[in-house]
Design goal:
CATH class of one domain: Mainly Alpha
Helix content: 55-70%
Number of strands: 0
Largest sheet: none
Shape: elongated
Order of helices and strands: HHHHHH
Length: 174
């Protein structure tokens, strides 16, 4: 029983659940996307912010607003991620005890899950704030740029547009 419980709990926390798949985000169901925000989108956006802001023709006010949103969100995220890690650590501590207090373990699990939800909610808040800052056309452009970047990443992983080495478009096999 203990081994099974440890396996289930360790599996549950081994890979963070991407709750943004279930979050009701504006634009969900709209043609051309929307509702696909993922943790890390803000990081990628800021990494290439000068190029993206030029392509979107952002005003100085929009640039300043997005930068403020990003840094405020990042600051809050640090605290939320620390809270999540501490909650996971507490659960781990309880699970390593000789006699597991089931009630305390379930309570710790709930605390860890709640903390993870807050981390994901913070990520979503950033994307919602950016969306409010952009015009509808700018948002559609940004959405198209994300699709384009995602496709380019997939092509690089696959070894090119026609498949990997030895496939169509790749070097011939010997």
């Amino acid at each position: 029983m203990f081994t099974t419980l440890c396996f289930v709990l360790s599996t549950a926390f081994a890979t963070p659940v991407d709750l943004s798949d279930f979050a009701p985000s504006p634009g969900m169901g709209e043609p051309g996307g929307g509702g696909r925000e993922r943790p890390g989108d803000g990081e990628r956006l800021m990494k290439h912010f000068s190029k993206i802001s030029d392509r979107l023709a952002l005003s100085a006010e929009q640039k300043a607003a997005i930068e403020k949103l990003y840094f405020d969100n990042k600051s809050a995220g640090i605290d939320l991620k620390a809270r999540s890690e501490k909650a996971r650590l507490e659960l781990e501590r309880l699970m390593h005890a000789d006699a597991v207090d089931e009630k305390a373990a379930l309570k710790a699990f709930d605390a860890a899950a709640d903390a993870e939800v807050e981390v994901r909610r913070n990520d979503l808040k950033l994307m919602l704030g950016i969306r409010k800052t952009l015009t509808a056309d700018q948002w559609k452009q940004l959405d198209a740029m994300r699709d384009e970047a995602r496709d380019q990443r997939r092509e690089r992983k696959a070894g090119g547009p026609e498949g990997g080495p030895g496939g169509p478009g790749g070097p011939p096999e010997e």
